[in-house]
What we know:
CATH topology of the largest domain: Glutathione S-transferase Yfyf (Class Pi), Chain A, domain 2
Helix content: 40-55%
Number of helices: 10
Mean pLDDT: 93
Distance between the termini: 27 Å
CATH superfamily of the largest domain: RecF/RecN/SMC, N-terminal domain
Amino acid sequence: MVIKKLTLHNFRNYEDETFCFRDGVNVLFGRNAQGKTNCAEAVFYLCTGSSLRIRHDRQLIRHGQECAYIRAEAEGRYGGVSLEAEIYENRRELRVNGSKIRRSVDLLGNMYSVFFSPGELRLIQDGPDERRRFLNLSISQTSRPYCTALLRYNKILDQRNNLLKNRDTSLILETLPVWDEQLVRYAAAIVRQRREFVALLSPLAKDAHAYLTDGAETLEIGMEGDYGADEETVAQTLLRALEGAYERDIRLGYTSVGPHRDDVKILIDGKDAKGFASQGQTRTAALSMKLAEVKIFEQLTGEAPVLILDDVMSELDLPRRKKLVGRIGDLQTILTCTHAERALYGRETNKIRIQGGRIVP
């Protein structure tokens, strides 16, 4: 997958700009707070329908404007594709090849991207929410059924949680089994695909980590908990767990078991990375997981994603910069930095200078 052109209109700090990208490494450089990350964010948004930086789409609209517009033209193994998003205060319109799509899930799978920035250290350092978010975004790009199951699971979960807040205990106990039967069906699909994804991720991340650290450390990744080997077993296991937690859930007012509580184990030399890893070790582990994600996309889709590296080079020492550049290979990469990095001088790059939300010579 190669993105050829990106158009931004009233998006973040851009009034009206068009970026022309090439195969290989594209370097967006300039001083801080000029709009480099905003451009990278637009690419990721068109791939996933969401941003890693904000909660509400209206924050993407340029100050003083009513609507933001972004469009990407890409080339993949099945030909060209154009993706568009018009973002308003309380709604948005998405189009694929000029046709309006009714469901956000239909945006997925048209263009793939993997995003890495210093903020991705949250993947290691923060709570389970960040690691589940990583799984959900990555798996959803290659599996619309997963995304659909996740949306339906979350909707039923919200309804179950609302029921648990009811003061009528008899009504709760009478109604919970109805929601649980629906919940575990989607939960089983989510659990299965997460475990399949992590089974692919673990050896690839271990290999990338060994490469970046010259084999000095070992990275291990796995899912916590064991629900069973197949979806039917998972569903029955979860159903029993939900029934066993009725008293606790009523007391707490929310659902305490299920895939919305799952976590990913990340170990460096056998120790929990969250509690023991240094800043440098955390950065390398997170980057290894992202490089593994690239390989998974290649395996599952038959083509490489667009790799977005946002201000990563400034966070790495020179040996790791060179190793990262060597690992990128022929991937189309959008790399943001304050200067055209010396580690990239050995290879041909497409350099684009950004200043005040504009492309300048």
